[in-house]
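Protocol step 4 of 5: obtain the predicted structure for the target chain.
Materials: sequence only (see below). No template structures provided, no constraints applied. The aim of this step is simply to have a reference model before the mutagenesis design in step 5. Sequence pasted as it appears in the construct record:
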Amino acid sequence: MRNQSVDSYRARGTFHGSERRATSSLFSKLQVLMMTVFFTLNLSSPLAAQQLAGSAVRARITLNGMWGYVLNQSQNSIPTSGWIPARIPALPIDDGTSSIWYQRTLNVPSTWAKPGRSFFLELEKAGHYSAIYVNGTMMGEHFGQFTPFEVDVTSAIIPGQVNTIDIYVHKADTTYVRSGVNINQSSCPPDNPDCIGNAYRTSADPVVERNWVGLVGDITLYWRPTENVSDVFVVTSVRNSTLTADLQVVNASPTATVQAAVLDGNQVVLRLKPQTVIAGAATLNAAWADPILWGPSPYGQPKLYTLETQLLESGVVVDKTFTKFGFREVWDVGKTTYLNGKPLWMVGDWFLKLAPGRYVNDRRVQAFQIYVWESNGLNMMESHWDDAGRSILDLADEMGYLVMGAFYCDGRPIGESKVDSVTGWTDWMASTAGDWAIAVRNHPSIVIWRPTDVLPQGVTQAYVWPPINAAVRAADPSNRPIADSTDIDTWSENFDPDPPNCDTPAAMAAKLASETKPLLTREMYGNQNLACVPAFFDAYYNAAFTGGGIGMLSDLAYSMNTNIMPIWFSISGIGNRPTTPIQVPNWMTQKFTSTPLGTQFAGLFQQYVQPTLLSTSPTSGDYQASGIPSDVQTAFLTSSTGNADATGVVAAEDGSGTAWFVVPQPGNYKLNYTSGGVDVVKAVVVTTPAPF
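Step 4 output (structure tokens):
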């Protein structure tokens, strides 16, 4: 689909020029720090501060910020007027809107466009269909909200001139469901017109919210060498005391080699011997006798290392990339799952459907959510209503919080969704699962896979789960178990089948005793207000923990979340910035009210697992720059020690003179930008956020 102008874009079964306009509630969701002008990024000044950023081998530039949008227009023609400014990304648009065009312009300095360098544009999360255009040329398209979408835009970028980026997103409907089909939803009932499209989306409470639309994840422009290491998968073995790096390389010569070193901050603690790239791949291995093991207490500590991988031609480094990882291993023996050689015990919770705390996509809100969970005796989360998202997975890695990797749950009333084709839907879901597993597999916090849960009407677990699990296993050949009876069996517990009497742990205990595999209480539900609930949970926790279970998840409330108005330091930087009250803990005051159930589970964790509750904090760099002149377009942080890629943000869009950076490594950096024709390069120290 590359190099294809929008005017000659492939014919579709239906164009949506007559799709309905937005309601007033939609505008309240989209008017994120509304402004009266549409912004152009003027990045064309080839001065030294620009050159400092431009000399970086790799860089990322966050394009989150002010975009224009137009609603409910067809894809066959990019709008020429009617653009409304808003901060993008934003929360999902869930009122039935069919499509959104987004647009912004930028000048790429000539100093950025070096020979042998390629540019890529990534959408971290878009629902459901997305297509990227640069200067009117379609560069690529993607179906599905669960995985990031990246496209090479080098051929369309014009250095030193105004470039226009347009992004089209559409809900799951007609030709926007999966590639190569045109879905007819005319048989769907009037109150559920997307019954087939809904099968490709994860569940939401009202049916109309399920087929949401919009850009809700980070929008990032990258550059890296055209000859580059395209993928690094780090596999660690506690039992063998080894580290393995499986590499994929593109555009390398037959004599290219790769080498790698493990960094602890700025210090090299392990080197992996060079290998020749063969057919675009290489595997590096090294023995490692004394790494610090990753995990929450008592399994380890949230220790992250960085693997610096270098690609060389004739002994000269032509590319290098940095991959964060934790040294840990998960495996099963009989009825026990082990993490770093100790029996695994997890107690967790998950986000609600379309939870603002998930889609705000901001580290501070999400870090506080993990803190709340830890304070209530929990050490694990699952996000099976959608993929967890990059920001919270990074935080889980940094804070030592366990994750059950999941991305899809239909969870519908009968008739809300149905598949159009058993084989077509299954093939699409298996392909999506493989892409998703590749995207998240380097997160040490993911200790168990459970890609999908409840399936749509028309398919069965026996038919769907084997190809999905095969795709995940191909992406992750390590020992991480899959919790859908492949490696781990699951149990669901309704603790009040006959109100007002609570159930007993007897059925679960009998299931556990008869098992040949580890058993996880995957779901607990019921009326938490019954008088017998505290005694039930005491008995159940004891029976599962002492009987050899590996954990339990509950959809009950452990803490009181209240509607608050977040106060953002800056609109410049990663994450969404809603201006309406959202239901998240107030991280500005760092206070929350624990429920009696939360207090009880904290006590159970202290009684059975360890006497001290988890209390961890992010470890990556968080830098809030202020006093940046209003004419600055883009500001960069470049590592003074060379152990991180350059990170740029759009800095002047709200006139506040602020910019918000998040970088993988704390340490010494240079803040650089150009103002009034004058280069500014400041030495700054990027620290980790203050502990809770």
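Step 4 remarks: The domain at 4-50+64-224 is CATH 2.60.120.260 (Jelly Rolls). The longest strand covers residues 228-237.
Proceed to step 5.
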